[in-house]
Design brief:
The protein has a single domain, classed as Calcium-transporting ATPase, transmembrane domain (Up-down Bundle). 69% of the residues lie in helices and 0% in strands. It is a multi-pass membrane protein. Keywords: Cell membrane, Magnesium, Membrane, Phosphoprotein, Transmembrane, Transmembrane helix. InterPro entries: ATPase_P-typ_cation-transptr_C (IPR006068), ATPase_P-typ_TM_dom_sf (IPR023298), P-type_ATPase_IIIB (IPR006415).
């Protein structure tokens, strides 16, 4: 497995935090103009489009870790944990609205929980708790690659979202 079972459980716990806070989110005014109905066809299309988009950036992370950084097993697991939790947390802010994420203000709890989740995830490998999860320190330049991958994912999701909602 790319992650140890205890790392998978931690990933699930951390990525659930921002998703639980979505119930407190602000809603764009145009979504309140008339009652909204669940549209299973729309949800299916959404999953078919955004699922593979997410996977592209997972594979980019794998490539950076394996081919560029020549990561050890624990470095690989640490790097993928960081990318997967941080990207899953941040993407909630992107896909929560039809508007660009910088034009649709998230609720304060959603925003705060997302920032806390990202911060905890980021610092975890530097702590004793991180050692319990077999995380290890990564080369400094990994964080540059991580920033580029995360920014590219957010920008790509915004572009795809724009076409998706047309």
């Amino acid at each position: 497995l790319p992650l140890l079972p205890k790392q998978v459980l931690l990933t699930n716990l951390l990525t659930d935090l921002p998703e639980m806070a979505i119930a407190t989110d602000n809603v764009d005014p145009e979504m309140l103009e008339k009652p909204q109905r669940w549209n299973m066809s729309f949800i299916r299309k959404f999953m078919i489009v955004f699922g593979p988009l997410s996977s592209v950036f997972d594979y980019l992370t794998f490539g950076v870790l394996l081919l560029v950084l020549k990561a050890t097993v624990n470095q690989f697991r640490t790097g993928w944990f960081l990318e997967s939790v941080i990207s899953a947390s941040l993407i909630v802010l992107v896909i929560r609205s039809k508007r660009p994420f910088f034009k649709s203000k998230p609720g304060k709890y959603l925003f705060t929980v997302t920032l806390i989740t990202v911060a905890i995830t980021f610092i975890l490998p530097f702590t004793l708790i991180g050692e319990l999860f077999n995380f290890t320190l990564l080369p400094l330049h990994f964080y540059l690659f991580l920033g580029i991958i995360l920014a590219s994912y957010i920008i790509s999701a915004e572009i795809v979202k724009k076409f998706f909602w047309k």
